[in-house]
Design goal:
Blueprint lengths: L3 H16 L22 H4 L5 H7 L3 H9 L5 H19 L2 E4 L1 H18 L10 E5 L26 H8 L3 E6 L11 E2 L3 E2 L15 H8 L5 E6 L5 H6 L3 E4 L23 E6 L2 H13 L26 E4 L10 H16 L3 E4 L5 H12 L5 H10 L5 H9 L7 H24 L4 E5 L15 H9 L3 E3 L4 E2 L16 H7 L9 E2 L1 E2 L1
Helix pairs in contact: 3-5, 5-6, 12-15, 12-16
Length: 513
């Protein structure tokens, strides 16, 4: 007999299945076996995409709009190319919750009609396919935020940021997977199952915006829209070889994003982009903040996006955090960080060591604030749906406070948070540092089910510092990345993390800047 939660979950699984265009799927026999871990090149070589479609999916937003603006390609053919690629990658990595084929093609047709009639693009994102994390509200579509109990939740309007992107001409073509309770560095839930890393399907793509990491990293999307409360944009971007931006809080619109429990403001969740170029990150923010969203979402900071000239390398000082004091970097990640530092120095940038200030305590405060009610809200919602608790969800509950905090306790931690923010600002000024360079994670992407260390990204959420991950183009090298000799763990945490350091496991290695 099927469990009641399974019956509910099947509603969303059917939505996903029904959203697939069968003509764009490959027969099972033509898919690589599970033993083929790296599938990054498969969409290019499987024969499903034409050479022109493959070339289209490798273009940036600027490249696409430039060609559409001179009539060299249409929005319809652009959207079809990305949808086809998305279908193939979904079969291999399980990243989507719903393909918006009908809606995307209808919108693309309207954009083409506008261009034919006027010779002009609708806006700066005309025809640009953008993928969206599931818990952004879509009018008339199920938005469950990875909770079975919310499968009957259907928003009456689109999230504000989606309306802004559509007005600029963007085409929203696929919704993507996320973890149970949205508080995990991986992407796994009982509704859709686990999403896997396209560079190595035994590894995680990160979380909680893991579906977005896959979509952007495999060029199934030009820009991805995720959320970040502890690293949830930056970790998937880092693990999938993309750029991922965490703005400061109250910058990008958040209205209409379904993140439960709502109202937690001690560490705010933010909406942020993932992309394959820094220029597309800049374009995204220019469009979103150029729309003046604070006129509708009045809590936002009324500050336009500034397109500033890059500073002279001679005027820039970068502080490097080589390790956070709790867990040292694994050999591949240390090599990546050293490579970036060397490139900066060769370019004439002043690079100095930056000693981290009480990061372990900062992260402990963050963990308490994430679950100030001891996770009771999330546990009640899970119980309402009757769904099983995923292992990494339980891990998050285990590090939370075990008894709900009092209001006074919460206030005291908020005050402590503000003290750390002021201290870090002062330290950067005193040390003459303009930018901090650090890792997003101690090593390359973790094996599935083993992502337990959030600290390298979460610290910046509590400090409310803007942060961006960027790809180095480096990968694990068995000849270069040797285990440390005479390594003695300083703590149980470091011992646990270094037990995962498998040099033979191929993946992307890049630091978090």
């Amino acid at each position: 007999m099927t469990n009641s939660w399974e019956t509910k979950a099947e509603i969303c699984r059917k939505i996903l299945t029904d959203s697939l265009n069968q003509e764009w799927l490959l027969p099972q026999a033509q898919l690589p076996p599970q033993s083929t871990t790296n599938i990054m090149m498969f969409p290019d070589t499987c024969g499903k995409l034409t050479d022109r479609e493959t070339a289209i999916t490798k273009l940036t937003a600027e490249g696409l709009t430039k060609r559409m603006g001179i009539g060299e390609m249409t929005a319809t053919e652009v959207v079809i190319a990305f949808l086809k690629r998305g279908h193939i990658v979904h079969q291999l990595c399980n990243f989507a919750t719903e393909f918006l084929v009908k809606e995307a093609l209808e919108q693309a047709a309207k954009l083409d009609k506008h261009f034919e009639a006027t010779g002009k693009l609708v806006g700066p994102l005309h025809g640009v396919p953008i993928s969206v994390k599931e818990h952004f509200g879509f009018k008339g579509k199920v938005c469950h935020s990875a909770y079975v109990c919310f499968i009957d939740h259907i928003p009456s309007e689109d999230a504000l940021i989606l309306r802004i992107l559509r007005d600029a001409g963007a085409v929203l073509h696929v919704r993507t997977n996320e973890p149970q309770i949205l508080m995990s560095g991986e992407t796994d839930n009982p509704i859709y199952g686990v999403s896997v890393n396209p560079y190595n399907r035994n590894l995680t793509p990160g979380g909680s915006s893991g579906g977005e990491g896959i979509a952007v990293g495999t060029h199934c999307s030009v820009i991805g829209l995720g959320t970040d409360i502890g690293g949830s944009v930056r970790v998937p971007a880092a693990f999938c070889g993309a750029y991922g931006l965490r703005t400061t809080a109250l910058r990008n619109p958040y209205k209409g994003i379904f993140f439960q429990p709502d109202g937690q403001e001690s560490i705010r969740c933010i909406a942020g982009p993932l992309a394959n170029s820094l220029e597309d990150i800049n374009l995204f923010e220019s469009v979103v903040l150029g729309s003046e969203p604070w006129d509708e979402e009045t809590s936002l900071v009324p500050l336009p996006w500034k397109n500033v000239a890059p500073p002279s390398v001679n005027d820039l000082t970068v502080g490097v955090i080589w390790e956070d004091g709790t867990c040292r970097l694994h050999p591949p990640m240390l090599r990546a960080l050293r490579t970036v530092v060397s490139q900066l120095q060769n370019a004439g940038v002043k690079v100095v060591d930056f000693e981290p200030f009480e990061h372990s305590t900062i992260v402990d405060v963050a963990k308490k604030l994430f679950f100030a009610d001891a996770g009771q809200s999330q546990k009640e919602m899970l119980a309402d749906g009757g769904e099983p608790i995923v292992a990494l969800t339980q891990f998050a509950f285990d590090f939370a406070v075990q008894e709900p905090m009092t209001v006074r306790d919460n206030w005291a931690l908020n005050d402590k948070r503000e003290g750390y923010r002021a201290t870090y600002h002062r330290l950067m000024k005193e040390r003459g540092v303009d930018v901090i360079l650090s890792a997003a994670y101690p090593g390359p992407p973790a094996e599935l089910g083993t992502f337990h260390y959030w600290a390298y990204t979460t610290v910046w959420n509590l400090l409310d510092q803007p942060a961006i991950t960027f790809p180095t183009g480096l990968t694990v090298d068995q000849d270069l990345d040797k285990p440390f000799e005479k390594f003695t763990p300083r703590s149980d945490v470091e011992k646990k993390e270094f037990s995962k350091c498998q040099i033979h496991t191929f993946s992307v290695a890049q630091p978090d800047g």
